[in-house]
Automatic annotation (TrEMBL):
UniProt pathway: Nitrogen metabolism; urea cycle; L-ornithine and urea from L-arginine: step 1/1
Organism: Staphylococcus arlettae
Name of the protein this chain belongs to: Arginase
Cofactor note: Binds 2 manganese ions per subunit.
A GO CC annotation given for this chain: cytoplasm
Amino acid sequence: MKNIHIIGAPSTFGQRKLGVNFGPDALRYAGLVERLKNIGHSVEDKGDIAVPAVDVEKFKGKQEGLRNLNEIIEVSENLSNAVSSSIKNQAFPLIIGGDHSIAIGSISGVSQHYENLGIIWYDAHGDLNIPEESPSGNIHGMPLRVLLGDGDKQLVNISGYAPKVKPENIVLIGMRDLDVGERDFIRENNIKTYTMADIDRNGIKQVMEESVSYLKDKTDGIHLSLDVDALDPVETPGTGTKVLGGLTYRESHFALEMLHNTNLITSMDVVEVNPLIDQNNHTAEQAVCLMGSFFGETLL
């Protein structure tokens, strides 16, 4: 059984819809702590990291360059420190967001403790944009590229070092919405990628087996970054960047059960739950159920 530290990162600054900052509380309200304790884990909710207050007028207004850059730098540094502290205390950090820009901070904190960190990016999107190619200026579309060492230098050098991960140590799963620059970068760097067409063709079982096989011998830790928009929006309506044709709830349960059985995942973040655009906290409840599977919950 694991010693789990839950770390809330209630940041909405990486995108343009208020509400994802309430994601950590929605997940707690959906019974996250109790569910993990009932499996048998030791669970300590470390609360939320310090996050700047939202200036609604600025948030809604037009901004030049990267949106909310200073706020995201502050969030990333605070989160990196909190995650690193948990790992130093032999805990499994479970970071709950917040939009996907928080992965800059969470993975910056994790990768300090590994020589060759692997990442499984379970998402509809690659999040591999750079500022000059981003259609929106939203930083939640850039975190993985930042972690690879490209983009705004202040973000790239969070916690004083870069890069945090190598292209050959990444697996993208669930891809179905990639910008042109992201597609080119994936091809040029030969990043292991499973689109929804691959999952339809080969099945989630084969995809997960291949992903684990690809990473296990060349990494000394694997971080799972789970964006709830990886699932079809019918399953998870309370998320801000919906793309039809995603993974099913059952496929995702099976994928996470398989990852649990490998005992290779060393940290995790769960992002993009937005209760303000949800239906009766349904998306948070689904996410908590998925985390149950990942942490070893079984029917029998």
